[in-house]
Protein backbone atom coordinates (compact mmCIF):
# COMPACT_ATOMS: atom_id res chain seq x y z
CA UNK A 1 0.00 0.00 0.00
CA UNK A 2 1.38 3.42 -0.97
CA UNK A 3 1.63 5.73 2.01
CA UNK A 4 0.10 9.17 1.70
CA UNK A 5 2.85 11.78 2.12
CA UNK A 6 2.78 14.33 4.87
CA UNK A 7 1.18 17.58 3.87
CA UNK A 8 -1.82 16.04 2.09
CA UNK A 9 -4.18 17.74 4.52
CA UNK A 10 -3.25 21.28 3.53
CA UNK A 11 -5.00 23.99 5.53
CA UNK A 12 -7.81 25.70 3.65
CA UNK A 13 -6.18 29.11 4.11
CA UNK A 14 -3.10 28.10 2.07
CA UNK A 15 -4.31 28.72 -1.50
CA UNK A 16 -0.95 28.02 -3.15
CA UNK A 17 -0.41 24.59 -1.64
CA UNK A 18 -1.53 21.46 -3.45
CA UNK A 19 -5.31 21.22 -3.39
CA UNK A 20 -6.74 19.03 -0.67
CA UNK A 21 -7.74 15.62 -1.93
CA UNK A 22 -5.25 15.50 -4.83
CA UNK A 23 -2.86 13.00 -3.30
CA UNK A 24 -5.26 10.19 -2.64
CA UNK A 25 -6.74 9.96 -6.18
CA UNK A 26 -3.24 10.08 -7.65
CA UNK A 27 -1.85 7.43 -5.33
CA UNK A 28 -4.90 5.24 -5.81
CA UNK A 29 -4.55 5.45 -9.58
CA UNK A 30 -0.83 4.62 -9.39
CA UNK A 31 -1.50 1.68 -7.09
CA UNK A 32 -4.23 0.35 -9.41
CA UNK A 33 -2.05 0.97 -12.50
CA UNK A 34 -4.95 3.00 -13.90
CA UNK A 35 -3.55 5.43 -16.44
CA UNK A 36 -6.90 6.99 -17.31
CA UNK A 37 -7.68 7.77 -13.67
CA UNK A 38 -4.25 9.33 -13.20
CA UNK A 39 -4.68 11.55 -16.26
CA UNK A 40 -8.13 12.64 -15.05
CA UNK A 41 -6.75 13.50 -11.61
CA UNK A 42 -3.86 15.58 -12.96
CA UNK A 43 -5.52 17.12 -16.02
CA UNK A 44 -6.68 20.34 -14.26
CA UNK A 45 -3.47 20.68 -12.24
CA UNK A 46 -0.80 23.25 -13.17
CA UNK A 47 2.61 21.93 -14.23
CA UNK A 48 4.27 23.60 -11.21
CA UNK A 49 1.86 21.82 -8.84
CA UNK A 50 2.49 18.47 -10.53
CA UNK A 51 6.22 19.09 -10.04
CA UNK A 52 5.57 19.82 -6.35
CA UNK A 53 3.57 16.61 -6.06
CA UNK A 54 6.44 14.61 -7.56
CA UNK A 55 8.87 16.21 -5.11
CA UNK A 56 6.72 15.16 -2.16
CA UNK A 57 6.46 11.53 -3.22
CA UNK A 58 8.97 8.82 -2.41
CA UNK A 59 11.30 7.41 -5.07
CA UNK A 60 9.25 4.30 -5.88
CA UNK A 61 6.04 6.33 -6.03
CA UNK A 62 7.62 8.87 -8.38
CA UNK A 63 8.93 6.23 -10.77
CA UNK A 64 5.57 4.45 -10.83
CA UNK A 65 3.70 7.71 -11.50
CA UNK A 66 6.08 8.81 -14.28
CA UNK A 67 5.83 5.52 -16.12
CA UNK A 68 2.05 5.39 -15.78
CA UNK A 69 1.59 9.02 -16.81
CA UNK A 70 3.65 8.36 -19.96
CA UNK A 71 3.34 10.90 -22.75
CA UNK A 72 1.15 13.18 -20.64
CA UNK A 73 4.27 14.25 -18.71
CA UNK A 74 5.28 17.26 -20.78
CA UNK A 75 8.30 19.51 -20.83
CA UNK A 76 6.70 22.20 -18.67
CA UNK A 77 6.61 19.77 -15.75
CA UNK A 78 10.27 18.86 -16.27
CA UNK A 79 11.19 22.55 -16.31
CA UNK A 80 9.50 23.09 -12.94
CA UNK A 81 11.33 20.24 -11.19
CA UNK A 82 14.27 20.68 -8.85
CA UNK A 83 17.49 19.94 -10.73
CA UNK A 84 18.41 16.87 -8.71
CA UNK A 85 14.92 15.42 -8.92
CA UNK A 86 14.68 16.19 -12.63
CA UNK A 87 17.58 13.85 -13.31
CA UNK A 88 15.76 11.06 -11.47
CA UNK A 89 12.49 11.68 -13.34
CA UNK A 90 14.21 11.83 -16.72
CA UNK A 91 15.98 8.58 -15.93
CA UNK A 92 12.60 6.90 -15.42
CA UNK A 93 11.24 8.10 -18.79
CA UNK A 94 11.53 6.19 -22.04
CA UNK A 95 13.71 8.01 -24.60
CA UNK A 96 10.85 8.54 -27.05
CA UNK A 97 8.59 9.88 -24.28
CA UNK A 98 11.35 12.24 -23.15
CA UNK A 99 11.87 13.47 -26.70
CA UNK A 100 8.16 14.17 -27.11
CA UNK A 101 8.07 16.02 -23.78
CA UNK A 102 10.75 18.53 -24.78
CA UNK A 103 9.66 19.07 -28.37
CA UNK A 104 7.66 22.24 -27.58
CA UNK A 105 10.04 23.72 -24.99
CA UNK A 106 11.87 26.96 -25.69
CA UNK A 107 15.55 26.55 -26.49
CA UNK A 108 16.77 27.89 -23.13
CA UNK A 109 14.63 25.32 -21.30
CA UNK A 110 15.94 22.53 -23.53
CA UNK A 111 19.52 23.59 -22.80
CA UNK A 112 18.82 23.68 -19.06
CA UNK A 113 17.32 20.20 -19.23
CA UNK A 114 19.90 18.59 -21.47
CA UNK A 115 22.82 19.66 -19.25
CA UNK A 116 21.93 16.93 -16.75
CA UNK A 117 21.24 14.06 -19.18
CA UNK A 118 23.41 11.14 -20.14
CA UNK A 119 24.39 10.42 -23.75
CA UNK A 120 21.39 8.27 -24.86
CA UNK A 121 18.90 10.70 -23.36
CA UNK A 122 20.71 13.68 -24.87
CA UNK A 123 20.66 12.04 -28.29
CA UNK A 124 16.93 11.32 -27.96
CA UNK A 125 16.15 14.92 -27.07
CA UNK A 126 18.29 16.40 -29.85
CA UNK A 127 16.78 13.95 -32.32
CA UNK A 128 13.28 15.17 -31.43
CA UNK A 129 14.12 18.78 -32.34
CA UNK A 130 13.93 20.21 -35.82
CA UNK A 131 17.21 21.09 -37.52
CA UNK A 132 17.15 24.78 -36.61
CA UNK A 133 16.36 24.22 -32.93
CA UNK A 134 18.92 21.42 -32.67
CA UNK A 135 21.64 23.68 -34.09
CA UNK A 136 20.67 26.43 -31.64
CA UNK A 137 20.75 24.08 -28.64
CA UNK A 138 24.09 22.57 -29.66
CA UNK A 139 25.59 26.03 -30.06
CA UNK A 140 24.26 27.13 -26.66
CA UNK A 141 25.92 24.11 -25.06
CA UNK A 142 29.29 25.39 -26.29
CA UNK A 143 29.05 28.34 -23.89
CA UNK A 144 30.35 27.92 -20.32
CA UNK A 145 27.94 26.67 -17.69
CA UNK A 146 26.24 29.41 -15.66
CA UNK A 147 26.83 31.97 -18.42
CA UNK A 148 24.35 34.17 -20.25
CA UNK A 149 24.86 32.02 -23.33
CA UNK A 150 23.36 29.04 -21.49
CA UNK A 151 20.56 31.12 -20.03
CA UNK A 152 19.39 32.94 -23.16
CA UNK A 153 16.73 31.83 -25.59
CA UNK A 154 16.91 32.25 -29.36
CA UNK A 155 13.19 32.90 -29.87
CA UNK A 156 13.13 36.70 -30.18
CA UNK A 157 11.68 39.51 -32.28
CA UNK A 158 13.85 42.17 -33.92
CA UNK A 159 13.32 44.75 -36.65
CA UNK A 160 15.51 47.35 -38.39
CA UNK A 161 15.97 50.47 -36.29
CA UNK A 162 14.71 52.76 -39.10
CA UNK A 163 11.25 51.15 -39.24
CA UNK A 164 8.11 52.81 -37.99
CA UNK A 165 5.27 51.36 -35.91
CA UNK A 166 3.12 50.45 -38.93
CA UNK A 167 5.90 48.47 -40.60
CA UNK A 168 6.61 46.63 -37.35
CA UNK A 169 2.97 45.71 -36.70
CA UNK A 170 2.53 44.46 -40.28
CA UNK A 171 5.68 42.40 -39.94
CA UNK A 172 4.50 40.80 -36.69
CA UNK A 173 1.08 39.96 -38.12
CA UNK A 174 2.65 38.18 -41.09
CA UNK A 175 4.93 36.00 -38.97
CA UNK A 176 3.84 32.43 -38.31
CA UNK A 177 6.52 31.50 -35.79
CA UNK A 178 6.56 34.33 -33.26
CA UNK A 179 7.75 33.40 -29.76
CA UNK A 180 4.96 32.24 -27.50
CA UNK A 181 5.86 35.04 -25.08
CA UNK A 182 7.95 38.14 -25.63
CA UNK A 183 8.04 41.59 -24.07
CA UNK A 184 10.08 43.78 -26.40
CA UNK A 185 10.70 44.29 -30.07
CA UNK A 186 14.46 44.73 -30.41
CA UNK A 187 15.85 47.35 -32.79
CA UNK A 188 19.02 46.45 -34.70
CA UNK A 189 21.36 48.30 -37.03
CA UNK A 190 22.49 46.88 -40.42
CA UNK A 191 25.26 44.91 -38.66
CA UNK A 192 22.75 43.17 -36.34
CA UNK A 193 23.82 45.19 -33.34
CA UNK A 194 20.92 45.98 -30.98
CA UNK A 195 20.41 49.71 -30.51
CA UNK A 196 17.23 49.77 -28.42
CA UNK A 197 13.92 48.06 -27.78
CA UNK A 198 10.23 48.93 -27.67
CA UNK A 199 7.66 47.43 -25.31
CA UNK A 200 4.56 45.89 -26.83
CA UNK A 201 2.40 48.37 -24.91
CA UNK A 202 4.18 51.38 -26.44
CA UNK A 203 4.07 49.72 -29.85
CA UNK A 204 0.31 49.12 -29.80
CA UNK A 205 -0.42 52.55 -28.33
CA UNK A 206 1.48 54.56 -30.94
CA UNK A 207 0.46 55.76 -34.40
CA UNK A 208 1.59 53.84 -37.46
CA UNK A 209 3.88 56.60 -38.67
CA UNK A 210 5.76 56.97 -35.38
CA UNK A 211 9.41 55.94 -35.65
CA UNK A 212 10.37 52.98 -33.49
CA UNK A 213 13.44 54.79 -32.21
CA UNK A 214 11.19 57.57 -30.89
CA UNK A 215 9.37 55.21 -28.52
CA UNK A 216 12.35 53.10 -27.47
CA UNK A 217 12.77 52.41 -23.74
CA UNK A 218 15.38 54.25 -21.69
CA UNK A 219 16.07 51.07 -19.70
CA UNK A 220 17.75 49.43 -22.70
CA UNK A 221 20.97 47.56 -21.98
CA UNK A 222 22.65 44.50 -23.46
CA UNK A 223 24.07 41.41 -21.79
CA UNK A 224 27.42 39.94 -22.93
CA UNK A 225 27.01 36.31 -23.90
CA UNK A 226 29.85 35.23 -21.58
CA UNK A 227 28.58 37.14 -18.53
CA UNK A 228 28.01 35.07 -15.39
CA UNK A 229 24.34 34.27 -14.84
CA UNK A 230 24.54 35.68 -11.31
CA UNK A 231 25.55 39.05 -12.77
CA UNK A 232 22.68 38.77 -15.25
CA UNK A 233 20.17 38.22 -12.46
CA UNK A 234 21.66 41.15 -10.54
CA UNK A 235 21.23 43.44 -13.59
CA UNK A 236 17.57 42.44 -13.99
CA UNK A 237 16.87 43.05 -10.32
CA UNK A 238 18.90 46.25 -10.05
CA UNK A 239 17.61 47.94 -13.21
CA UNK A 240 14.07 46.48 -13.22
CA UNK A 241 14.49 44.83 -16.61
CA UNK A 242 11.79 42.74 -18.26
CA UNK A 243 14.00 41.36 -21.00
CA UNK A 244 17.45 42.12 -22.36
CA UNK A 245 19.19 41.23 -25.64
CA UNK A 246 22.34 39.12 -25.46
CA UNK A 247 25.30 40.07 -27.65
CA UNK A 248 28.49 38.32 -28.72
CA UNK A 249 32.02 39.71 -28.60
CA UNK A 250 31.25 41.90 -31.65
CA UNK A 251 28.07 43.28 -30.03
CA UNK A 252 25.85 41.37 -32.49
CA UNK A 253 22.48 40.08 -31.35
CA UNK A 254 22.54 36.36 -30.51
CA UNK A 255 19.62 35.87 -28.11
CA UNK A 256 17.46 37.32 -25.38
CA UNK A 257 17.03 36.73 -21.65
CA UNK A 258 13.61 37.26 -20.09
CA UNK A 259 12.69 38.15 -16.55
CA UNK A 260 11.30 34.71 -15.68
CA UNK A 261 14.67 33.06 -16.34
CA UNK A 262 16.56 35.83 -14.55
CA UNK A 263 14.37 35.54 -11.46
CA UNK A 264 14.88 31.78 -11.36
CA UNK A 265 18.63 32.40 -11.22
CA UNK A 266 18.20 35.11 -8.57
CA UNK A 267 16.13 32.73 -6.47
CA UNK A 268 18.75 30.01 -6.91
CA UNK A 269 21.51 32.43 -5.86
CA UNK A 270 19.59 33.34 -2.70
CA UNK A 271 18.88 29.69 -1.91
CA UNK A 272 22.50 28.76 -2.56
CA UNK A 273 23.73 31.43 -0.12
CA UNK A 274 21.39 30.19 2.60
CA UNK A 275 22.37 26.57 2.05
CA UNK A 276 26.08 27.32 2.02
CA UNK A 277 25.86 29.42 5.17
CA UNK A 278 24.41 26.34 6.85
CA UNK A 279 27.08 24.10 5.30
CA UNK A 280 24.64 21.87 3.40
CA UNK A 281 25.45 22.91 -0.18
CA UNK A 282 22.97 22.28 -2.98
CA UNK A 283 20.38 19.87 -1.67
CA UNK A 284 16.65 19.25 -1.55
CA UNK A 285 14.17 17.12 0.35
CA UNK A 286 14.13 14.61 -2.51
CA UNK A 287 17.87 13.85 -2.34
CA UNK A 288 18.99 10.37 -1.42
CA UNK A 289 20.48 9.68 2.02
CA UNK A 290 23.95 8.94 0.65
CA UNK A 291 24.02 12.16 -1.44
CA UNK A 292 22.88 14.29 1.50
CA UNK A 293 25.48 12.64 3.74
CA UNK A 294 28.29 13.36 1.28
CA UNK A 295 27.35 17.04 1.05
CA UNK A 296 27.14 17.59 4.79
CA UNK A 297 30.10 15.50 5.94
CA UNK A 298 32.93 17.87 4.85
CA UNK A 299 31.57 20.81 6.82
CA UNK A 300 30.84 18.70 9.84
CA UNK A 301 34.48 17.59 9.65
CA UNK A 302 35.59 21.23 9.48
CA UNK A 303 33.39 21.98 12.48
CA UNK A 304 35.03 19.13 14.36
CA UNK A 305 38.46 20.64 13.72
CA UNK A 306 37.34 24.06 14.95
CA UNK A 307 35.77 22.48 18.04
CA UNK A 308 39.05 20.71 18.80
CA UNK A 309 40.88 24.02 18.43
CA UNK A 310 38.51 25.63 20.94
CA UNK A 311 39.00 22.68 23.26
CA UNK A 312 42.77 23.17 23.10
CA UNK A 313 42.26 26.72 24.33
CA UNK A 314 40.13 25.45 27.21
CA UNK A 315 42.79 22.85 28.05
CA UNK A 316 45.31 25.60 28.67
CA UNK A 317 43.22 26.76 31.64
CA UNK A 318 42.28 23.41 33.17
CA UNK A 319 43.85 24.36 36.52
CA UNK A 320 41.71 27.50 36.74
CA UNK A 321 38.57 25.52 35.86
CA UNK A 322 39.44 22.91 38.49
CA UNK A 323 39.59 25.58 41.19
CA UNK A 324 36.54 27.47 39.99
CA UNK A 325 33.94 25.00 38.73
CA UNK A 326 31.58 27.90 38.09
CA UNK A 327 33.70 28.77 35.05
CA UNK A 328 32.64 25.52 33.36
CA UNK A 329 29.01 26.47 33.93
CA UNK A 330 29.37 29.94 32.42
CA UNK A 331 31.69 29.16 29.49
CA UNK A 332 28.94 28.02 27.09
CA UNK A 333 27.11 31.32 27.64
CA UNK A 334 30.07 33.38 26.43
CA UNK A 335 30.67 31.14 23.40
CA UNK A 336 26.98 30.96 22.46
CA UNK A 337 26.44 34.71 22.63
CA UNK A 338 29.53 35.33 20.51
CA UNK A 339 28.50 32.71 17.98
CA UNK A 340 25.01 34.16 17.58
CA UNK A 341 26.30 37.72 17.27
CA UNK A 342 28.85 36.60 14.68
CA UNK A 343 26.17 34.79 12.68
CA UNK A 344 24.00 37.91 12.65
CA UNK A 345 26.81 40.08 11.28
CA UNK A 346 27.90 37.35 8.88
CA UNK A 347 24.43 36.94 7.38
CA UNK A 348 24.09 40.66 6.75
CA UNK A 349 27.59 40.86 5.24
CA UNK A 350 27.21 37.86 2.91
CA UNK A 351 23.86 39.09 1.64
CA UNK A 352 25.22 42.61 1.12
CA UNK A 353 28.18 41.25 -0.83
CA UNK A 354 25.85 39.21 -3.03
CA UNK A 355 23.70 42.27 -3.80
CA UNK A 356 26.81 44.48 -4.22
CA UNK A 357 25.65 46.79 -1.44
CA UNK A 358 28.85 46.16 0.54
CA UNK A 359 31.78 47.56 -1.42
CA UNK A 360 35.24 48.99 -0.82
CA UNK A 361 33.62 52.42 -0.60
CA UNK A 362 31.59 51.64 2.52
CA UNK A 363 33.27 48.58 4.02
CA UNK A 364 35.02 50.47 6.82
CA UNK A 365 31.84 52.29 7.76
CA UNK A 366 30.02 48.94 7.98
CA UNK A 367 32.85 47.43 10.04
CA UNK A 368 32.72 50.37 12.47
CA UNK A 369 28.95 50.02 12.70
CA UNK A 370 29.11 46.31 13.50
CA UNK A 371 31.83 46.94 16.10
CA UNK A 372 29.65 49.62 17.71
CA UNK A 373 26.62 47.32 17.70
CA UNK A 374 28.72 44.58 19.29
CA UNK A 375 30.02 46.99 21.92
CA UNK A 376 26.56 48.27 22.87
CA UNK A 377 25.02 44.80 22.99
CA UNK A 378 28.09 43.57 24.85
CA UNK A 379 27.74 46.26 27.53
CA UNK A 380 24.03 45.52 27.97
CA UNK A 381 24.50 41.76 28.30
CA UNK A 382 27.66 42.28 30.36
CA UNK A 383 25.55 44.12 32.96
CA UNK A 384 22.97 41.32 32.89
CA UNK A 385 25.53 38.52 33.19
CA UNK A 386 27.53 40.43 35.78
CA UNK A 387 24.47 40.56 37.99
CA UNK A 388 23.68 36.90 37.25
CA UNK A 389 27.23 35.88 38.07
CA UNK A 390 27.17 37.67 41.43
CA UNK A 391 23.66 36.46 42.34
CA UNK A 392 24.30 32.88 41.21
CA UNK A 393 27.75 32.26 42.63
CA UNK A 394 28.15 35.08 45.14
CA UNK A 395 31.49 36.20 43.69
CA UNK A 396 31.64 39.82 42.46
CA UNK A 397 34.91 39.22 40.61
CA UNK A 398 33.36 36.33 38.72
CA UNK A 399 30.55 38.63 37.60
CA UNK A 400 33.13 41.18 36.44
CA UNK A 401 35.07 38.50 34.52
CA UNK A 402 32.08 37.29 32.54
CA UNK A 403 30.94 40.87 31.92
CA UNK A 404 34.29 41.88 30.39
CA UNK A 405 34.50 38.64 28.39
CA UNK A 406 31.01 39.24 27.04
CA UNK A 407 31.93 42.72 25.78
CA UNK A 408 35.16 41.49 24.18
CA UNK A 409 33.53 38.53 22.43
CA UNK A 410 30.55 40.45 21.04
CA UNK A 411 32.79 43.19 19.64
CA UNK A 412 35.07 40.58 18.03
CA UNK A 413 32.03 38.70 16.73
CA UNK A 414 30.73 41.82 15.00
CA UNK A 415 34.13 42.51 13.44
CA UNK A 416 34.68 38.91 12.36
CA UNK A 417 31.18 38.63 10.88
CA UNK A 418 31.96 41.41 8.41
CA UNK A 419 35.72 41.21 7.88
CA UNK A 420 35.99 37.48 7.23
CA UNK A 421 33.54 37.35 4.28
CA UNK A 422 35.07 40.55 2.84
CA UNK A 423 38.58 39.09 2.98
CA UNK A 424 37.42 35.78 1.52
CA UNK A 425 35.74 37.55 -1.39
CA UNK A 426 38.96 39.49 -2.08
CA UNK A 427 40.70 36.12 -2.46
CA UNK A 428 37.85 34.94 -4.74
CA UNK A 429 36.57 32.42 -2.21
CA UNK A 430 32.78 32.20 -1.88
CA UNK A 431 32.09 33.94 1.47
CA UNK A 432 28.81 32.06 1.89
CA UNK A 433 30.64 28.76 1.67
CA UNK A 434 33.56 29.31 4.00
CA UNK A 435 32.76 32.21 6.34
CA UNK A 436 30.66 30.29 8.85
CA UNK A 437 33.43 27.97 9.95
CA UNK A 438 35.92 30.82 10.36
CA UNK A 439 33.54 33.07 12.29
CA UNK A 440 32.58 30.23 14.64
CA UNK A 441 36.23 29.45 15.27
CA UNK A 442 37.09 33.08 16.01
CA UNK A 443 34.18 33.63 18.42
CA UNK A 444 34.79 30.34 20.26
CA UNK A 445 38.55 30.81 20.60
CA UNK A 446 38.33 34.50 21.57
CA UNK A 447 35.41 33.90 23.91
CA UNK A 448 37.05 31.07 25.80
CA UNK A 449 40.45 32.76 25.87
CA UNK A 450 39.04 36.08 27.11
CA UNK A 451 36.84 34.47 29.77
CA UNK A 452 39.34 31.94 31.09
CA UNK A 453 42.30 34.26 30.69
CA UNK A 454 40.61 36.99 32.71
CA UNK A 455 39.57 34.42 35.28
CA UNK A 456 43.18 33.22 35.63
CA UNK A 457 44.37 36.80 36.20
CA UNK A 458 41.58 38.10 38.42
CA UNK A 459 40.47 35.05 40.42
CA UNK A 460 43.69 33.26 41.25
H/E series, N to C? HHHHHHHHHHHEHEEHEHEEHHHHHHH
Low-confidence residue ranges: 1-12
Overall, the morphology is globular
Distance between the termini: 69 Å
Report the sheet-strand fraction: 5-15%
Throw out a few tags for this protein.
460 residues, mainly alpha, MgtE N-terminal fold, Tetracycline Repressor, domain 2, 3 domains, three-stranded mixed β-sheet, 21 helices, disordered N terminus
Description of the structure:
The protein is mainly alpha-helical. It has 3 domains: 23-146, MgtE N-terminal domain-like (MgtE N-terminal fold), CATH 1.25.60.10; 158-277, CBS-domain; 289-459, Orthogonal Bundle (Tetracycline Repressor, domain 2). 63% of the residues lie in helices and 6% in strands. It is built from 21 helices and 6 strands. The strands form 2 sheets. A 3-stranded mixed β-sheet has the order 1-2-3. A 3-stranded mixed β-sheet has the order 4-5-6. α14 links the parallel β4 and β5. α15 packs parallel to α21. It is globular, with a radius of gyration of 29 Å. The N and C termini lie far apart (69 Å).
Short description:
By secondary structure, the protein is mainly alpha-helical. It contains 21 helices and six strands.
Write the layout of secondary structure elements.
Blueprint: H1 23-31, H2 35-42, H3 47-56, H4 59-69, H5 75-80, H6 83-92, H7 95-102, H8 107-114, H9 119-128, H10 131-140, H11 148-151, E1 158-160, H12 165-174, E2 184-188, E3 194-199, H13 200-204, E4 223-224, H14 229-239, E5 243-247, E6 253-258, H15 259-277, H16 289-315, H17 318-323, H18 326-354, H19 363-393, H20 396-426, H21 431-459
Parallel strand pairs: 1-2, 4-5
Antiparallel strand pairs: 2-3, 5-6
Helix pairs in contact: 1-2, 1-4, 7-9, 8-10, 14-15, 15-21, 16-21, 18-19, 18-20, 18-21, 19-20, 20-21
